[in-house]
Amino acid sequence: MDPIRNPYAPGAGQRPPELAGRDAQLDQFDVTLERVARGRPERSVVLTGLRGVGKTVLLNAMRSQAVRAGWGTGKLEARPDQSLRRPLAAALHVAVRELGHPDRDQADEVLGTVKAFALRDQPAAKLRDRWRSGIDVPATSGRADSGDVEIDLVELLTDVGGLAADRGKGIGIFVDEMQDLGPADVSAVCAACHEISQAGLPVLVVGAGLPHLPAVLSASKSYSERLFRYSRVDRLDRESADRALVAPAAEEDAEFTPEALQAMYDVTAGYPYFVQAYGKVVWDVAARTPVTADDVRVAAPEAEAELAVGFFGSRLERATPAEREYLRAMADVAVEPDGATEENADVVGPAAAEQDSVLTSAVAAHLDRKPQSLSPARDALLKKGLIYSGERGRIAFTVPHFGRYLRSAADGPA
Question: Where does the Cytochrome c domain start and stop, copy by copy (predicted)?
Answer without folding.
Answer: 165-331
